[in-house]
Amino acid sequence: MVGVQRSMLAGAPGDLSPVPARRGCGIRLLYNPRMARAVAVHNLRKTYGAVVAVADVSFHVDEGEIFGIIGPNGSGKTTTVECLQGLRTRSGGEVEVLGLDPGSHGTQLRRMIGSQLQESNLPDRIKVWEALDLFAYGSGAGADWRELAERWGLTGKLNAVFASLSGGLQQRLFVALALVNAPRLVFLDEMTTGLDPSARRLAWELIAAVREHGATVVLVTHFMDEAEALCDRIAVFHRGRVVALDTPGGLVAVHGGESRVIFSAAEGDFSWLGSVPCVDGVSRRGARVEVGGRGAVLAHTAAALGARGIYPADLHVERSTLEDAFLKIVGAHGEQ
């Protein structure tokens, strides 16, 4: 390894973020944050003359996790992952991926990783089997692409040309091509852009399945619901820097703002709910009563109403989302 201390991947006892069970795709999975690091980045910088694409980025990715990268356009997301793959030469900082420096061991590293880039495409007339065979040969790993085609539901489309495939099937093919060398680490950049809602949900299942088959995943996305559903931890990029990094729940809890408990009541004064634990305020608009607060505000509000014999049929909570948190984080650091 060149220019990187071994401790970058080894980690330190005090540098582990608590990670709850994932909720994505209806599957409850855990990754162990005490596993070895697949990626370690320290003060990464990339410039093009006077243009700064990546100013100062530091983070790590643990083996076995789905690590998300989100941020406004031009915030340095794609440039960063291209530096991690050795596709671009970094201007400064230290990077270690699977124990290798991408700058000096890029060829060796690319045999160990898979990648679906932002602008992935194939010739319109290439057949599915031809693409799989070509990538398997190019990987030098002697991969059995037939088994891969079966795993990703492509067996019935082997003789179909790329242009005839639906968006969902094209994504299946891109995932299969990214996995043809049995990689330990997979980079997925804006994988679901341009897909309809049904194809996007299918892509989510594919991403979860990639991790289930043993690979670590770095996912770059513009979709907040996608990041919230799939990722164990998320880095928020802004102007070439990481301005926040936490679990999806952690980002929402710290930056998302309050939750709102909502119910309908034709009459009555509910200002007394303001004294209930976890409640920050009560407002009313016609028959709609809103109780703002944090933490277990729903449980406390429901209990207080029940103690007075009030059981609204439409009582529900509207919680802050990752998108709410993202907008506050980016807004706090100025517009892009």
Supply database-style keywords.
336 residues, alpha/beta, Rossmann fold, Alpha-Beta Plaits, 2 domains, six-stranded mixed β-sheet, four-stranded antiparallel β-sheet, 11 helices, 25% strand, disordered N terminus
Description:
By secondary structure, the chain is an alpha/beta fold. The protein has two domains: 7-253, Rossmann fold, CATH 3.40.50.300; 258-319, Alpha-Beta Plaits. The protein is 30% helix and 25% strand. The chain is built from eleven helices and 13 strands. Helix 6 packs parallel to helix 7. Residues 1-31 have low confidence and may be disordered.
CATH superfamily of the largest domain: P-loop containing nucleotide triphosphate hydrolases
- Domains counted in the coordinates: how many? 2
Mean pLDDT: 86
- Overall 3D form: globular
- Element-by-element helix/strand order: HEEEHEHEHHHEHEHEEHEEEHEH
Tell me the strand order in the biggest sheet.
Answer: 5-6-7-3-8-9
Unreliable parts: 1-31
Our measurement of the CA-to-CA distance between the termini, rounded to an integer number of angstroms, reads 35 Å
